Amino acid sequence: MSKNVEQTLVLFKPDSLQRGLVGDILTRFERVGLRIVGTKMLAPDRNHYGKHYEDIGKLKTRAGEKIFDITLDMMGRGPVIAMVFEGVEAVSLVRKLVGGTEPKSAEPGTIRGDFSHMSYEYANSAQKGIPNLIHASGDPEEAIKEVNHWFSDSELYDYQALHEVFTR
Fold first, then answer.
1. Residue 40 pLDDT more than 90?
2. Among the four residues 51, 100, 151, 164, which has the most C-beta atoms within 10 Å?
3. Is 135 a catalytic residue?
4. Is the CATH number of domain 5-167 3.90.79.10?
């Protein structure tokens, strides 16, 4: 894999499945040329999410135990679809497509800006997690750890896209 070609994790959170938005969101990643190299649907336990959000993402360290617990409760409300995308500077590209973590302030044209709406203020007052549809790795180092946490090497695939088959 070239130095600029990266893999990144995207989790379609329970709210994206419950709202029937997975196809619309997935299309955005494919349209910019990202390649799906791993995908699965699962319902992880709290321990798996704890490792993801604290051991890797440091959510409890950054935001406190209350936010951490609310996030784990929200993630446990249904299954998720975990996907690994690959492409040139995939981590920053996915972050750009996703938009800011707070849906209310996410730019129009981003996934969160177009499909979600809740503010931190409302979520905090209602003691709820932010239903912001997807998780995306924050940086290349985090992406490597997250991909390894969610996928084994045997669950990731290398293949040529159709345009690559006919242009080589």
1. yes
2. 151
3. yes
4. no
